[in-house]
From TrEMBL:
Gene3D superfamilies: Glutamine Phosphoribosylpyrophosphate, subunit 1, domain 1 (3.60.20.10). NCBIfam families: PRK03996.1. Belongs to the peptidase T1A family. This is Proteasome alpha-type subunits domain-containing protein. One of its GO terms (biological process) is proteasome-mediated ubiquitin-dependent protein catabolic process.
Length: 249
């Protein structure tokens, strides 16, 4: 009898649950982790790059961190194909707002737009929820730097620091204990790398499997910096993950 409730996205179980949405969230929890940290100098997005095969050519661009607009960036956890649809949708919404109003779209306004689109997929028969979750980091003049998470149900929430994806409970537990108000970017990077390592299957991670983007304001513009492998290695060593351990791994 229980199987009858997970065949459609718009059928509730007797205890008020949508099975297809829960399955989509579980699919996200099986993929590489991602996290965001808000500081008083900017934002940090970090993620684990999962290697499917050493035979694959390395991507020339980020596989999980995407620019949406000049002031908004996102990191993805879940099915990449589903994420690509929503990334394009978000970019189009931001571009249309800029064309119409000659100004940047507010981050929360964009989040509401995306979540309405995602939530619609949980109400329409013959469709399924998007199997992907996002962290959106951005800046606007009124609210400064902001961090939001979204999930397949269409819910969203604002955070000072949070993690999604595989082993996110371990990372979120660490962030709750160690996150403090008014962090500098340097302090935020230390917390981000330690939290990310807690989600990984090794205590001595390779820098090639970690991707970090720092978003900050320079003058009137919002700029992003992607850390290369040498910079990631230096950050790992600074926080107690020695080069010898990583070479042994």
């Amino acid at each position: 009898m229980s199987r009858r409730y997970d065949q459609k996205t718009n059928t509730f179980t007797p205890d008020g649950r949508l099975k297809q949405v829960e399955y989509a969230i579980e699919a996200i929890n099986q993929t590489g982790s991602a996290l965001g940290v808000l500081t008083n100098e900017g934002m940090i997005l970090a993620t684990e790059k999962q290697e499917v095969s050493h035979l694959l050519e390395h991507s020339k661009h980020s596989e999980k961190i995407y620019p949406i607009d000049r002031h908004i960036f996102s990191v993805v956890s879940g099915h990449t194909a589903d994420a690509n649809i929503l990334i394009n949708y978000a970019r189009e919404a931001a571009a249309n707002h800029r064309y119409q109003f000659q100004d940047n779209i507010a981050l929360e306004q964009l989040i509401i737009n995306i979540c309405d689109y995602k939530q619609n997929k949980t109400q329409v028969g013959g469709q399924r929820p998007f199997g992907t979750a996002f962290l959106f980091a951005g800046y606007d003049k009124k609210n400064g730097f902001q961090l939001f998470s979204t999930d397949p149900s269409g819910n969203y929430a604002g955070w000072k620091a949070t993690a999604i994806g595989k082993n996110n409970l371990a990372a979120n537990s660490y962030l709750k204990q160690d996150y403090k108000e008014n962090l500098t970017l340097e302090q935020g990077l230390d917390i981000a790398i330690k939290a990310l390592v807690k989600t990984m299957d090794t205590s001595s991670p390779q820098p090639s499997k970690i991707e970090i983007v720092v978003i900050s304001q320079q003058g009137k513009e919002v700029k992003s910096k992607t850390y290369n492998e040498k910079e990631v290695l230096s950050l790992l060593q600074k926080n107690g993950f020695s080069n010898e351990q990583m070479q042994q791994e």
